[in-house]
Design goal:
Elements lengths: L9 E5 L4 H12 L3 E6 L18 E5 L5 H8 L4 E4 L15 H19 L5 E7 L23 H19 L3 E7 L1 E3 L7 H11 L3 E5 L5 E2 L1 E3 H14 L4 E6 L5 E2 H11 L6 E5 L14 E2 L4 H6 L7 H15 L7
Parallel strand pairs: 1-2, 1-4, 2-3, 4-5, 5-6, 6-11, 7-10, 8-13, 9-14
Antiparallel strand pairs: 9-12
Helix pairs in contact: 1-6, 2-3, 3-4, 5-7, 7-9
């Protein structure tokens, strides 16, 4: 469901070598766009883009959004910017309190400044997060919910980025579309609960450590559905600045995810060991225990996910295990 005419569009994707970014690049390239990726490769990899390296419509700039010169070079002649470059791990903010400020807020400001100066790059699509809602009192949570009270530095930084984008769009004749993502899962992901569980079970097939009490319940969406929603909403967006929730319509708990992965790996007898170090059963400080986004705004426009949360987790587990060459016989 890609209604946009991308053929010949000149597009910049920051963070395009990462998990979601590389899947977006695949879709853009398959639909005839001329794509530039700006990535510092801290979280992404050239391997994710290997099929496009050397293609006449593709270029990779290894650089950083913290360096305005790198952004200026990458944005030259582009019409449309997808901004995905960011620290992807909520938990890191507990250890390094500057990382979300620098990698998310300052990097976004640098990008907006170069867009302000650009003669062509005036449309921005930004990947935000459900973490901006904090522990919402209303579930499912709509885009109009407030006040926003994030409980992690990551969530606070995404909220700050949204505010900056809104202000730049209204002051400098730009257009911005913001996507508040649920948990996106699938191939090429190298963080999050599914990847963590796979890594732990490969290290110790007899026991799986679960952060928190396992009852944390959230919405999950397969990355292919995410990219579909990403481009669909951008094409349908009609405001100077607009926000869309992107997710599935149900939730799945961590204990169920653990069972999906142990079954997928043929380790049904693995013992679950719970690490309850944070109050309220959370997995870590800043972990939102319950999250479900109201996606009725996107549905009214004609989009809906092809899979529910459970199906997304099952498919993502299968994809990741195939990707690393895991066989049950191991």
């Amino acid at each position: 469901m890609i209604p946009m005419n991308l053929k010949g569009a000149r597009v910049l994707v920051t963070g395009g070598a990462g998990f979601i970014g590389s899947h977006l690049v695949d879709t853009l390239m398959k639909n005839g766009a001329i794509v530039t990726v700006l990535d510092n490769l801290a979280y992404g990899s050239k391997e994710n883009l290997s099929r496009w390296l050397g293609h006449s419509n593709f270029s990779l700039t290894i650089g950083d959004c913290l360096n305005p010169g790198d952004v200026q070079k990458a944005i030259e002649s582009c019409d449309l910017v997808f901004h995905l470059a960011a620290n992807p791990d909520v938990r890191v903010g507990k250890i390094d309190t500057k990382i979300d400020l620098e990698q998310n807020v300052i990097a976004t400001h640098n990008l907006l400044e170069e867009m302000r100066k650009s003669q062509t790059a005036k449309i921005l699509a930004f990947t935000s997060s459900s973490t901006v809602y904090g522990e919402a009192a209303a579930i499912p949570t709509t885009e109009s919910y407030g006040p926003l009270k994030p409980i992690s530095l990551y969530g606070a930084s995404k909220m700050a980025c949204e505010a900056l984008i809104s202000a730049y769009c209204h002051m400098f004749d730009m257009r911005g579309t913001v996507y508040r993502f649920a948990n996106i899962v699938g191939s090429r992901s190298r963080h999050g609960v599914i990847w963590d569980f796979i890594q732990k079970l490969m290290a110790n097939p007899k026991e799986l450590e679960i952060l928190g009490d396992g009852t944390q319940k959230k919405s999950y969406l397969l990355v292919e559905d995410c990219i579909d929603a990403f481009l669909f909403a951008l094409e349908k967006s009609s405001e100077i600045f607009e926000i869309f929730n992107v997710g599935s319509e149900d939730t799945v708990d961590v204990n169920t995810i653990a069972r999906v992965i142990t079954d997928s790996m043929g380790l049904e007898d693995a013992n679950f060991r719970y690490r309850r170090e944070v109050e309220g059963g959370r997995g870590w400080v800043g972990d939102v225990r319950f999250m479900l986004l109201d996606i009725s705004k996107l549905k009214r426009l004609g989009w809906k996910p092809k899979r529910n949360s459970y199906e997304s987790v099952v498919e993502a587990s299968k994809q990741l295990l195939n990707e690393i060459g895991y066989c049950k016989e191991n």
